[in-house]
Amino acid sequence: MLNGLIAKKIEMSQVFKEDGSLVPVTVLEVGPCVVTQIKNENKENYSSLQLGFGNRKPKNLKKSLYGHFKNIRSKPAILKEFPVSQIEEDLKVGKEFQISDIFTVGNKVQVMGVSKGKGFAGVVKRHGFHGGPKTHGQSDRHRAPGSIGGRTDPGRVYKGKKMGGHMGDERITVKGLEVIAIDEKNNQMKIKGAVPGYRGSILTIIKVN
């Protein structure tokens, strides 16, 4: 059965528990997600559900999607596929999944998303290098990477060498997060800890247990 939904990051906040401890949380808008396509073993050789999230403006709807959404009242803006072990017989395209259909308070989840892009960064910020010596005339080596390879042998820089470059904007999976609270009325969920991405970024939440 389905064990995940599409969500949007709203903000970070904090929650006080009954014992008075403070818990940092991330507030997410989870669902509702509509089934836009059902894939099964007979046709695609695997079972999965394609879910849609949000609303797409009519002017942004391509002709190729008109037929895809012909049995759906809303026109979702985000489409993601979720593998399932078994597809229920009564499941049809157009069915909506709410946050309470999948998650409950106390569930362990993993969140997948794209991290914030930081642009070009040096080795100190990107990889945590401590830099070169700051004495004995080394005035220009404070944030330098140091040696990046030999001369005659190997005569090149090894692939994968930690150097300056584009930082962030990568697909990140954060595991072991806990559902602290669920607001069914507003389709919101509070998860303990931080998740990748900026405010308004799209995330995928998978229930682990």
From TrEMBL:
Segments for region (Disordered): 129-165
Gene Ontology CC terms: cytosolic large ribosomal subunit
Entry keywords, A to Z: Ribonucleoprotein, Ribosomal protein, RNA-binding, rRNA-binding
Gene3D superfamilies recorded: 3.30.160.810, Translation factors
Origin superkingdom: Bacteria
Keyword Transport: no
Single Gene Ontology BP annotation: translation
InterPro entries noted in UniProt: Ribosomal_uL3 (IPR000597), Ribosomal_uL3_bac/org-type (IPR019927), Transl_B-barrel_sf (IPR009000)
Pfam families: Ribosomal_L3 (PF00297)
TM helices/strands, residue ranges: none
GO molecular function list: rRNA binding; structural constituent of ribosome
Family as reported in the entry's similarity comment: Belongs to the universal ribosomal protein uL3 family.
HAMAP family: Ribosomal_uL3_B
Subunit structure: Part of the 50S ribosomal subunit. Forms a cluster with proteins L14 and L19.
Role description: One of the primary rRNA binding proteins, it binds directly near the 3'-end of the 23S rRNA, where it nucleates assembly of the 50S subunit.
Protein name, UniProt field: Large ribosomal subunit protein uL3
Originating organism: candidate division CPR3 bacterium GW2011_GWF2_35_18
Lineage of origin: Bacteria, Bacteria division CPR3
